Amino acid sequence: MRILNVTAQKPDATGSGVYLAEMVRSEVALGHEAAVVCGLAADDEVRSLPGEAHVFAVRFDTPGLPFHVCGMSDTMPYAATRYRDLTPDMLAAFEDSFSRVIREAVEEFDPDLVICHHLYVVTALVRELVDDRPVVAICHSTCLRQLAQHGLERERIARAVRRLDCVYALHGAQREQIVEQLGVTPERVRVLGTGYNARVFHAGADTPRKPGRIVYAGKIWRKKGVESLLRAYAAMDGRGLDLRFAGGRGDDAEFEAIRRLVDECPWHVELLGRLSQADLAVEYRRAELFVLPSFYEGLPLVVIEALASGCKAVVTDLPGIRPWVQSNVPDAPVWWVRPPRIRNTDEPCEDDLPAFEGRLAAAMREALASDCCGCDVSALSWDALTARLLLDYPIDK
């Protein structure tokens, strides 16, 4: 099968970027031909995709697109333009550039199936331009957040999404949200879940685990709960503990506020920056506990990667995540933390943060004191996930 994968973003650096890159790797491993349409900065090189994949790039920071790659989150781990800040001229240039490259990819690569990532502007373009072969899309939650927070092309996107051959949700709660928010018929929305790279993320016996080591992986961003994690950690008895943050920085002012909390913390904290998948896997294998205190998530693959690497986990109990994990990894050593009340999709109520941070600290203490460890996540590999999706499209040319 010839599979065209489409994203408006860089095919790395974020959860959805890793999701796409790993699916492409699995498509190739399963014997298919793969191509990718993606957004890149003028001087970006693609390192996250297998060499066999054909890449059709839309280049930003160029005379034709004189602004940064557009990000599905308002704070990205690289220089990015917010969708809400696009002027009519910028949006027209964006759509013209992607339309040209999508047409080129379809004509040259001649895909049997097109898989789009995010239910947003570029997915709408693909559906409008490609009507003679199956087009499906995977929701990563951030698109739903964009649609809820501002009106850019909202009705056009909804119309196009309703015409997709299938929409894949990360979990059951997200499936219900897609049906309600975009008016997609329930029969056209299926739960796909997430996966992990079993070749990279595993509990290797050759890496000594350090008791008391806590690791966070993701954007260094307030909405990921990073400030709350630092305050919760500072309130604990941190003797013998070690907190390490792996991830790219976003907004400079916000990062400096987080840096001040790091400097003020009475216990050891280290900011590692953005890591490769291989280096992140080593961090997981050395850690006892993984913590994800986010205020908004789809289905975070970092949780599965950490569990596969032998970590215990403390995770905010956000909609849809706990049922999916408990259904697919029933023996997972995860402690769930009730979130604060949320406004505007991803903003915590300030009055609720002290109690949330108290619950977070209590969960970390309980997890660190527990002897529970290890679980079987082997059924959640990217190869298995990709094979499940492709079974829906038995095309033989």
UniProtKB/TrEMBL annotation:
Keywords: Glycosyltransferase, Transferase
CDD domains found in the cross-reference section: GT4_PimA-like
GO biological process: carbohydrate derivative biosynthetic process
Superkingdom of the organism of origin: Bacteria
Xref: SUPFAM superfamilies: UDP-Glycosyltransferase/glycogen phosphorylase (SSF53756)
Gene3D superfamilies recorded: Glycogen Phosphorylase B
Keyword Transferase part of the UniProt annotation: yes
Keyword Thylakoid: no
Stretches assigned to the Glycosyltransferase subfamily 4-like N-terminal domain: 14-194
GO molecular function: glycosyltransferase activity
Protein name: Glycosyl transferase 4-like domain-containing protein
Organism name: Parafannyhessea umbonata
